[in-house]
Amino acid sequence: MLIAQLSDIHLDGVSSLQRLDRVLRWVAELRPDAVAVSGDLANNSHAANYAVLKARLEALGAPLLVVPGNVDSREAMREVFGGPDGPLNRVVEVGGIRLIGLDVIVPGAAHGDAAPVLGWLETQLDSGGAPALLFLHQHPFDCGMDQYETIDCRNKEGLAAVIEAAGDRVLGISCGHLHRPMFTRFAGVPATLAPAIAPMGGLAADGRKLPATDPPGLLVHHVKGGNLVTHVISVSG
Ligand SMILES: [Fe+2]
């Protein structure tokens, strides 16, 4: 079971589409079993850009899970990709795994908030069922990069409690937002942050600051025998 996670596409014109297409050519060769998109799909002209993106993603022929990011429009996403009223929380079941998308955006803000989705997530995880991989946009963990700690997903303690209560039914949690691949732990499970398809962000930590040198990329989550291994893929020109 291979789940391709694309993130931070930031469609806003020709060069963003070229970067996306370069990555999608690699993804098409992979033939993933599912595709998850963890937010920041388009910067502007939301409905039109989402329609362009949806056509490209559907051409991959895999089940699709999409969650919004801070630059997205919930209304336009609902219009193009479908979804419930209110937060665009989603579940996609594929190959004995549940992909759970959490809509933690706060319209008009860069940070997210898990509080409004906790009850819904608890219900999903309470029902037993297949092992789950969670996707959201803003990072629910301390990333260690000072300038980004304030644009995190708030109420992470509540989110951690819900995940911890689910025990080993949660395989991992993965986000986007910071345009850098990162690996840590959150609520006792592996926590990852996907590289961006838009330009990557540099590393700034403990007083050191370096510009980004990485090409765009994605994560591929490989679930086999109940074990999760996450691969980082960079797609150079
Ligand atoms: Fe973002």
Please name the CATH topology. Purple Acid Phosphatase, chain A, domain 2
Kindly report the average pLDDT value: 96
Termini distance? 27 Å
Strand order of the largest sheet: 4-5-7-9-11-10
* Low-pLDDT stretches: none
Q: Give the CATH H-level superfamily.
A: Metallo-dependent phosphatases
Major β-sheet annotation: 6 strands, mixed
The CATH class: Alpha Beta
Characterization of the model:
The protein has about 240 residues and is of the alpha/beta class. It has a single domain (about 1-235), classed as Metallo-dependent phosphatases (Purple Acid Phosphatase, chain A, domain 2, 4-Layer Sandwich). It contains five helices and 15 strands. The protein has helices at about 15-30, 45-60, 75-80, 120-125, 155-165, and strands at about 1-5, 35-40, 65, 90-95, 95-100, 110-115, 130-135, 155, 170-175, 180-185, 190-195, 205, 210, 215-225, 225-235. The chain is globular. The structure holds fe (ii) ion. Fe (ii) ion binds near residues 40, 69, 70 and 177.
Summarize the structure.
By secondary structure, the chain is of the alpha/beta class.
Features:
Purple Acid Phosphatase, chain A, domain 2; alpha/beta; binds fe (ii) ion; 237 residues; single chain
Write the layout of secondary structure elements.
Elements (H helix, E strand, L loop, with lengths): L1 E5 L7 H17 L3 E5 L7 H13 L5 E4 L6 H8 L8 E5 L2 E5 L10 E2 L4 H9 L5 E4 L17 E2 L1 H10 L4 E6 L6 E5 L2 E5 L9 E3 L2 E3 L6 E8 L2 E8 L3
Parallel strand pairs: 1-2, 2-3, 5-7, 6-8, 7-9, 9-11
Antiparallel strand pairs: 1-14, 4-5, 10-11, 12-13, 14-15
